[in-house]
Amino acid sequence: MFQINDNYQKLPGSYLFSTIGKKVAAFSEAHPDKSIIRLGIGDVTQPLAPAIIEAMHKAVDEMADAKTFRGYAPDLGYEFLRKAISDNDYKARGCDIEADEIFVSDGAKSDSGNIQEIFAQDNRIAVCDPVYPVYVDSNVMAGRTGTYDAATGMWSNVIYMPCTRENNFVPEFPKETPDMIYLCLPNNPTGTTITKAQLQEWVDYANKVGAVIIYDGAYEAYITEDNVAHSIYECEGAKTCAIELKSFSKNAGFTGVRLGYTVVPKELKCGDVSLHGMWARRHGTKFNGAPYIIQRAGEAVYSDAGKAQLKEQVAYYMKNAATIKSGLQEAGFEVYGGVNAPYIWLKTPEKMTSWEFFDYLLEKANVVGTPGSGFGPSGEGYFRLTAFGSYENTVAALERIKAL
Amino acid sequence: MFQINDNYQKLPGSYLFSTIGKKVAAFSEAHPDKSIIRLGIGDVTQPLAPAIIEAMHKAVDEMADAKTFRGYAPDLGYEFLRKAISDNDYKARGCDIEADEIFVSDGAKSDSGNIQEIFAQDNRIAVCDPVYPVYVDSNVMAGRTGTYDAATGMWSNVIYMPCTRENNFVPEFPKETPDMIYLCLPNNPTGTTITKAQLQEWVDYANKVGAVIIYDGAYEAYITEDNVAHSIYECEGAKTCAIELKSFSKNAGFTGVRLGYTVVPKELKCGDVSLHGMWARRHGTKFNGAPYIIQRAGEAVYSDAGKAQLKEQVAYYMKNAATIKSGLQEAGFEVYGGVNAPYIWLKTPEKMTSWEFFDYLLEKANVVGTPGSGFGPSGEGYFRLTAFGSYENTVAALERIKAL
Fold first, then answer.
1. What is the CA A108 to chain-centroid distance, rounded?
2. 3-state secondary structure of A108
3. pTM higher than 0.95 for the full model?
4. A146: helix, coil or strand?
5. What are the backbone dihedrals phi and psi of residue B371, each rounded to the nearest 5 degrees, phi first?
6. CA terminus-to-terminus distance, chain B
7. Contact, A136 vs A154, CB < 8 A?
8. d(CA B391, CA B327)
9. How many alpha carbons fall within 13 Å on the CB side of residue A67?
10. Can you tell me the distance from the alpha carbon of A131 to that of A181, in angstroms, rounded to the nearest whole number?
11. How far from chain centre, in Å, is Cα B235?
């Protein structure tokens, strides 16, 4: 008789955003007259930039003609896109990352879930707490996390690095030595980040203890401060210890378009074994390339027109972030993030739990946010609002919150 | 110090089609004057059907307007596509598969590589031999296959079910009981299939021994004989033992568009645990939905115009299949497949190995095919040609082969 992967049974409850979705649906059904504003999930609302739309129409037309039709893409991505990424995201910043070190994918969520596969099962992971749930969940499925303690919300074999107001949201080197360190910077959900000098310390630490850093740079486009690194490869020595994941979802509005990439430098090795070769093998065996049309959309992100249009789009969302931040501060909330990231992280008032505040905000202001505890035990007592709504909705939501 | 997943080190050599690509590139460089005809990889060459192109342009335009813009898709697929699949591929054939049992993905290669994740590591797999290499390779990466014997090309913990001319390419129930049985029908690479009555015997066997069948129906659109099932769910009892994988690559030319789906019936359980719930969790954690534009393209496959256009496209390729089959027979080859599948499987002449015949055909006829041994040990002494080229190239290739 076949047996299942028992690790799945260890996962508590359902995915955070499913629970939120159900709660909102129930409220909406009970109060059909209320207009709900969603500042919960990190989903964008602005349409795709004209340069991207144009590139996709052109690519669709190419698929309509046998002379320009494209079948299977190269597993690792089309050269035109890998080169644009290498030139713009790396070489222009002084990072020596070649096109063939870039693996194009259907999005950073897939990559951040799948990357753990190339590591040994008894590797020990460290995560910032709170953080994007996929890192831990995908390692639970792989049997790497030990047992779950429902009382603390913690896994016995995961090293948690609390990021709270007490340490200014800067993760500290853990007491126990991890093998794999997940860093999402700027961080989801806290919207906070660390300086390039602080990141350099993490790179030095990883090289010293022999850990690999899985660096999620999904929110890089929102960085506004000069002393923050746009890529971990700006730090010396990162190519021997770090894998970088990047998304087009937030910088170009591709949440429904699906495109991302992962950098695995050729210098990153375990003994003689190149992780670059391993990830290439994984990609070649269990993935068949991102759609041609979508890769052309990605290329347009790096065109002059695309860059200009997306700069405006990011500015639009960051105006929302500033609106949320100042509005919450006016309303007396303690607020973090929103400067280098499209997320605002607030301390819940009057010792409310994250879910209590979720219910309170939904019922009293009809505004949906995300409970901080959904991102890890140290997120308890915090709450996330996102800047990805429309400006009008954002302003309206803040008016409602201020009126509470 | 982090460690790697050692199972990757067990994988012999590179992926079959990479090796072929390198050999062809080397030949091409040495003989720049020769015009090479590629009937090797199963990649389509006909442009996308007009109904699909139209649907994609429309979807692209929707993404350009905030009012119709779509962000994150539902993880498991848009309802409009899941319903079209349920209605057309299942209910129209009398199979009671609901829309919510269908999981839309970025292609059957991803699903066929990832599906093993929800099963226990000590499950034993059975595969037809020869077969699509992803089934075995993805299980090697998961540590499920034991050790590799380079002399036989076999893994110690894989149950091989030889499909050769001796058994008319019909897999026999293995002596040892498997937990997971991979069936690709019509089969890649042999282009052969089994009758619905024979498939029913496999369903009965799986239910009896408690095995799960992972049924890859990628070539279903090419079935021409009435006694062949288009879905395993045409067989009684399949919903308690079978997962079905489907691709849009071959029936609609989506190799570069990327769309597929997997059916996990709610009745399929291991004890109390629903595999449907497990696959939903996997999809929700490590995947973020197929692109909206691509899902609209998939929907167009089921429109009246789409169906009519794709019927012609499949007929075009099957005319190639008939051309290859009759041409090879005229040239004195022993030939199989090509009736319910776009693949022709030939016995190599004069006891040549598969790779010897590959080199012979490349050098003497400048035609690229695929060595049968690349698909498993029982593929040795066979060779695959595909019907996915243009008609003109197919005719020209056969003229060259007949002239040898």
1. 7
2. helix
3. yes
4. coil
5. -65, 130
6. 58
7. no
8. 13
9. 0
10. 12
11. 20
| Distance from the A125 Cα atom to the nearest Cα atom in chain B, whole angstroms | 10
Q: Which of A155, A183, A153 is nearest to A169 (CA)?
A: A183
Reported as half-sphere exposure (CB side, CA atoms, 13 A), residue B318 has a value of: 16
Per-residue DSSP letter, A11? S
Q: What is the mean pLDDT of residues B124-139?
A: 97
Longest dimension (CA), chain A: 66
Using alpha carbons, select from A383, A373, A286, A369 the residue that is nearest to residue A37: A369
Residue A139 backbone class (left: φ over 0; alpha: ψ -120 to 50; beta: rest): alpha
pLDDT at A14: 67
Residues A72/A288, Cβ–Cβ less than 8 Å: yes
pLDDT band at B19 (very low <50, low <70, confident <90, very high): confident
Mean pLDDT of A151-176: 97
Give B65's contacts in chain A (Cβ within 8 Å): 47
Partners of B149 in the β-ladder: B154
For residue A144, give Cα distances in angstroms to A10, A137, A315, A377, B248. Answer: 11, 10, 40, 19, 35
Q: What is the mean pLDDT of chain B?
A: 97
Over range B304-316, report the average pLDDT: 98
pLDDT, mean of residues A64-83: 96
**What is each CA distance from B134 to B211, B255, B376, in whole angstroms?**
20, 16, 11
Alpha-carbon distance B49 to nearest alpha carbon in chain A (angstroms)? 7
Cβ contact (<8 Å) for A292 and B256?
A: yes
Residues 203-232 of A with CB under 8 A from B: 209-212
Residue A369, burial from CB neighbour count under 10 angstroms (0-12, 13-18, 19+) = buried
Residue where the block lists tokens 């995560």: A127
HSE of A11, CA atoms in CB hemisphere, 13 A:
26
Q: What is the ipTM of this complex?
A: 0.97
Residue type for position B4? I
